[in-house]
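Q: Predict the assembly, please.
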Amino acid sequence: SWYVKQFRTTSQARGSLGGGNTNSQGKAFVMSGATVATILMLGALHARRLYDDKKLEEAREKGIEFEFREDVKATFLRMLPLRSISRVWGSLMNVDIPVWLRPHVYRAWARAFHSNLEEAALPLEEYASLRDFFIRTLKEGCRPIDPNPYSLVSPVDGTVLRFGKLNGAGAMIEQVKGFSYSVSSLLGASILLSLVAEKNTEDESSNTEQESTRIEKSKKSWWRVSLASPKVRETVSECPLKGLYYCVIYLKPGDYHRIHSPADWNVLVRRHFSGHLFPVNERATRTIRNLYVENERVVLEGEWQQGFIAIAAIGATNIGSIELFIEPELRTNRPRKKLLSSEPPEERLYEPEGVGVVLKKGDEVAAFNMG
Amino acid sequence: STVVVVFQAPTSKNSDATEFRFSIRPGDKIRVGEALGVWHNE
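A: Predicted assembly structure:
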């Protein structure tokens, strides 16, 4: 419609050659036409996004699993300088907004991305830029932490994509049906994780032995077993087997973007992978191969009462940098110095050795920044 | 942005009593502090 209007205006201007006044009116008409067209385009994109989200939810409710299918858009994305685009986006979002305009901008953002403004810790006028608003803290008590001592809590607000049990360090996590990535590629070469794998293998074999012993014992009468082998049974109950589990949570643009501690744990190692910054929305997971393994991410690894634990915070084009509260000097989404796409991660061991940084369940750990 | 949590938790082949169990489903909206899963300490 913008082109049609522009064509009409140009034709009108050419038709009335003698009138300078008509020409300026035409320019004004083109300007207003462009503005209306832009607003309409943004509206259409938003409506399309809502429609796609609804379709995805409906499909998921029906139990439909999406298959991996790389497409032209994914190939095109690989050619774009997404890290530079992300940094430019971050700089734009860091521009101070006039105080009078702030509530309008943030309300519009909240309406578009379904954020709850009542939870914001500060009045809207106090967030100087959209970037500040994006990583806003919440009012006290907005996120009560599950009091059950035998629970692991969610570190973020988001949508659960996948979860399950893994078979050792070399196990694969399914990105979507038809494509998977390995845990060790996601977290990096981890001594802790390899120890877990070894332990799991040992446990598997000892469990098989215990199982055969148990079957043999059950052949005897119950009182003979209880008198003859109390130690064996005690050992089994005191040291239950440990499995390796995972959970993938996606944060939409309107979600609260701070990461909290999922349990009481000791963070021993931090790894920073400087990779690509592909979008990580649901469509991207179905079309971009190795999405989580290729994107820039920060991995925190350590131990909790049940053994190994790690959190991988994966960036995206619009939310490219990750800020660690336990290591404020860490800088992510920096310009690349090397041309190689697969650089080894930068690693830091937290001190004191073997203890690292102690975190309590619910403590703030990190935040995703815009750009 | 996305967060992946990988962790060890109790598991059992013989009895479900102590096994870690997720209390979520794919597609669920979850918030900070809500339980991802629980296990029982016997």
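Strands of chain B lie at 2-10, 21-22, 29-30, 35-38. The interface with chain A takes residues 1-14, 18-20, 22, 24-42 of chain B (CB under 8 Å).
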